[in-house]
Amino acid sequence: MMASDSGVEVRRLLWVGPSTVAAAIVAVLAVRVIAFSTLDLSPEFVPLKWSALIVFTAVLVSAGVLVFAAVSRWVANPVRFYRRLALGALVVSMIPDLLLPGSGPGATWPAAIVLMVMHVAAWWPTVAILTRWARGDTRQLHPNHAG
Q1: Residue 128, pLDDT score
Q2: DSSP string covering 38-74, please?
């Protein structure tokens, strides 16, 4: 596999991308399970329904993988750039959640906060997995590797 000048092997995204999407979905659903077991949230609130969470997380994290692939090809320091870009996207993604309370049935502050926690739950594995596993250095995958 050929690594770009940045050290990112874009071909690795064929398996790193789906792994990233799966990890983000698991993290978001874990937040949902914890939130519904500890908070009084409406099961009818559409943004917190299982199907909505899975679809939106899969689509948006897949978009993040595509952005990472593009950044890896066209930016001199793609990991640093992507980390900053993803952090900015995370902050911007919170704005609609802040406007949510009172907008409809089940749209409470606890529900909005849970959605914001879910944004972080999807963001963290996305950035961590993409910026580490897409590099050609397998020692990052196997820290005990003596190579």
Answers
A1: 94
A2: HS---TT-GGGSHHHHHHHHHHHHHHHHHHHHHHHHH
Question: What CA–CA distances, in Å, run from 110 to 21, 23, 41, 113, 135?
Answer: 26, 24, 7, 5, 38
Helices H / strands E in the chain, number of each: 4, 0
**Residue 3: band (very low, low, confident or very high) from pLDDT cuts 50, 70, 90:** very low
User: For residue 56, what are its two tokens?
Assistant: 């939106």
Given 3-state DSSP classes, what are the helix, strand and coil percentages for the chain, each rounded to the nearest 5?
75, 0, 25
pLDDT tens digits, one per residue of 28-63: 999 999 999 999 999 989 999 999 999 999 999 999
Euclidean distance between the first and final Cα of the chain, in Å?
18
According to DSSP, the residues that pair with 95 across neighbouring strands are none
